[in-house]
Specification:
Radius of gyration: 23 Å
Oligomer: single chain
Strand order of the largest sheet: 2-1-13-12-11-3-10-9-4-8-5
Structural class: alpha/beta
Number of helices: 18
Distance between the termini: 59 Å
Number of strands: 13
């Protein structure tokens, strides 16, 4: 047979080495060469079947997912990249941060750190010097991001078995309040900063102008028809996340440091929904704070908790993945198994379909060992064939650090290599299990 037929009948016999650019991540066991990961370089190379720099990582706990992420970040720092951990639920990146002289910001009840998810960020800088057209463009981006976040935070709250509805009417009310509080429609000199308690106060004590603008016949009808909306907004300032995201931002991010992290371990006792809501707030805030050039690695650990908030949380995550090329960022999402993304909604719902489609917004997938009962998910959701599935449920399970890395449609069996003195101590996540 010809050489182009050999790969079909004997796959995994050998593999073409990746170009020696980017982060050296270990040994490609199929050809013995060093395996390099260079997401942006691959996107720009027409010979590599990668169209976006996003990375999805899946694997059973303890197989080496977080070690891979930490090693990748540590090696990409040498190329000028910076990492932002937008929510670290288990403090897995604490040691890596402190290695570079960075103290993670502790987010949680009773902690001094405050993050305002309604912070407009650098887009509001020099507002008085902008043309009207530019102000309208920027305000559209700012209000759009806020509305997506608010729909997520409000819509994830439930009454019995039903979520609080956030339809077109509720969205128009929220938009009207946001525009009024920021003075967007009346003051061209600045876009006034606002916080969530102001939003709740404006809804609970509506002005005559707001009632008229939202076309309610009188104050009583407004208060009656917005009861669920007002109660849901009140929960954002008095509920589980009270005192965390309801005040002006009190921390200063050093954007020159190689890494920054937001620790969410103090929310563990509040449940998955509270953590998911915090992740949504951090995601929105992190997107707003995006400024300047350069490349950033945005790490989203346990992203499935955010996606469980509903369709709008999924849509927000989807938008970040789609904009990664334009921003020059690498989005890394870490989960246990592909089906985690299906927890975004009930079977057949819009949220679940969007979440399923998210899996195709990352051309790079790092697949660590999984139990055999996950094999159907690998086939159904990731389009992996029997030999690839066997590698994940067999070869990758036999030793920690082994992963099948998909670069577009091509696959590589890679064993992560860590420096025993410089990197291994920073990637070790079992110290909490030791006595």
């Amino acid at each position: 047979m010809t050489s182009d037929q050999v790969g079909l009948y004997w796959p995994f016999t050998t593999a073409t080495p990746t170009a020696p650019t980017g982060a050296p991540m270990g040994v490609d066991v199929l050809n013995g060469s060093t395996f390099y990961v260079d997401p942006h370089g691959w996107v720009q190379d027409d010979h590599v079947p990668v169209t976006n720099p996003n990375i999805f990582i899946f694997g059973k706990p303890g197989r080496g997912k977080s070690a891979w992420v930490k090693a990748f970040c540590n090696r990409m720092f040498a190329f000028g990249y910076q990492a932002l951990i937008m929510g670290d639920p288990k403090d897995e990146y604490e040691l890596l941060c402190r290695h570079f002289g960075v103290e993670p910001f502790a987010i949680g009840p009773g902690m001094p750190a405050r993050l305002n998810p309604l912070d407009p960020g650098p887009l509001a800088a020099g507002w008085d010097r902008l043309t009207r057209a530019e102000r309208d463009r920027r305000s559209g981006l700012i209000f759009g991001r806020w509305l997506v976040l608010l729909r997520s935070l409000i819509g994830c709250q439930t009454i019995g078995d039903h979520r609080v509805p956030v339809g077109p009417t509720e969205e128009q009310i929220l938009k009207a309040v946001l525009e009024d509080l920021t003075r967007h429609t009346t003051d061209s000199r600045e876009l006034r900063p606002i916080v969530l308690p102001q939003l709740w106060a404006a809804l609970d004590n509506p002005s005559s102008g707001l009632i008229e603008q939202t076309r309610f016949p009188d104050r009583w009808r407004f208060l009656e028809d917005t009861r669920l909306l007002r109660d849901a907004v009140a929960q954002l300032t008095t509920g589980a996340l009270a005192g965390i995201f309801d005040a002006p931002t009190s921390i200063t991010i050093d954007w020159t440091a190689p890494i920054q992290s937001m620790s969410l371990s103090r929310l563990a006792g509040l449940g998955d929904q509270a953590t998911g809501m915090a992740l949504a707030c951090l995601s929105s805030w992190g997107s707003a704070m995006r400024e300047g050039g350069g490349h950033r690695i945005n790490i989203r650990d346990e992203a499935w908790k955010q996606l469980r908030l509903g369709p709008d949380a999924v849509a927000s995550f989807d938008q970040d993945l789609r904009l990664s090329r334009a921003h020059g960022d690498i989005e890394i999402a870490v989960s246990h198994k592909p089906s985690d993304y299906l927890s975004a909604g009930h079977a057949g719902t819009q949220a679940q379909q969007i979440a399923k489609d998210l899996l195709h917004l990352a051309d790079i997938k790092v697949l660590y060992g999984q139990d055999a009962d996950v094999a159907d998910d690998l086939d159904h959701l990731l389009d992996l064939r029997p030999i690839a599935r066997a590698a994940i449920t067999g070869w990758a399970m036999h030793r920690t650090g082994r992963a099948l890395i998909c670069v577009g449609p091509t696959t590589h069996k890679v064993h992560l290599t860590l420096h025993p003195d410089l990197e291994l101590p920073l990637t070790h996540t079992n110290h909490n299990l030791q006595t």
